[in-house]
Design goal:
By secondary structure, the chain is of the alpha+beta class. It is 49% helix and 21% strand. The strands form three sheets. Strands 1, 2, 3, 4, 5 and 6 form a six-stranded antiparallel beta sheet that branches. Strands 8-10-11-13-12 form a five-stranded mixed beta sheet.
Length: 373
Amino acid sequence: METLISSSVLASLGKVVLERQRDGAFVLRGSPPDWYARLTQGVPAAHTPIRAETLFPFLEVFLPEAEGVFRGEGPTRLDSDIWCETAAGGEELPLVASALKLGPRCLLVITRCDELFRERRLLLQRARELRFTYDALSREIEQKDILMHCIVHDLASPLQTILGVLSSLDERHAPGEEGVLVELALEAALRQRAMIREILSVFASEHGDLDATHEETAVSDLRAGIGRVVAAQELTARGRKVRIEEDVAAPHLLVIADEPRLVRVLSNLLDNAIRHSPVGGRVRVAAREDGPNVEVRVEDEGPGVPAALAPRLFQRFSRGNGPEAGTGLGLYFCRITVERWGGSIGYDAPPEGGARFWFRLRKAPASVASLAA
């Protein structure tokens, strides 16, 4: 009697209660809701065995999973995902099944869930709308990036002419104020050329103009790259009375990286360190093998990175204040480039002061390294 009352209550809530028999068939318990009769085109007599998977084809997948519940293994309840059946007249019936173990009884409860189905459909529609908006914004950003790239690229051509003229004037060693003005103009033009190159490098890395397969197999000698960059920056460091120390023990450090971009990454980090070093300070460039990776550290004795700036240091257009601040693209370029090689990059604030930038690159596999040697 108690079971019948419970089944009737569940039926009033739009649920069909089926009790599993020893042979795997089910028997309807209580009075089913109206939708069940429309779906099955009639209600079977009490105690008539029902093959649930024939009545609801979706259950062919769910019932094997529900056997664990019926055998008393694991949880006492298992719910299916939502599926839809079509009743007479084309009526759509969203349903969900629950397998229950209640004492000796094994029950399968089928619930009509129109509200839950509607909410999921609205959620899916919203997700599609957001995806459409995201794709549209991505296309717009890409178009603006390409436009910026074209503008910056076009600016480079007349700048080369300006640099050529200023260099010629500078070589004449004009006396007095005229010579000072030429030097100032030449220095500004060189800075502008460096900024243009930085922007173009970021664009090239973001838009993947490199072949991915090539990036996976490109091998560079990190030690040789460090030597080249240190030599190139030596004159600038002397001009600021900054000493560069190179600390690389291994004769060769072959890593997964293409040489031009590796040199660019090293140059950015070393240039930052020199610019932020105090007069008479020291910049240290070190590289060590670390398991399957090689870690490079660039340390200086400058004021370090403000705590508020550190979390977004490697984001696009993230830059500090003051005359030594760059374009906000240099460290961003370093991050996206190193990550494309499967490496990582970061910043530490040493307890003794100063700044420490590091990046890790994968060592070249022995087979690739032997080919590159």
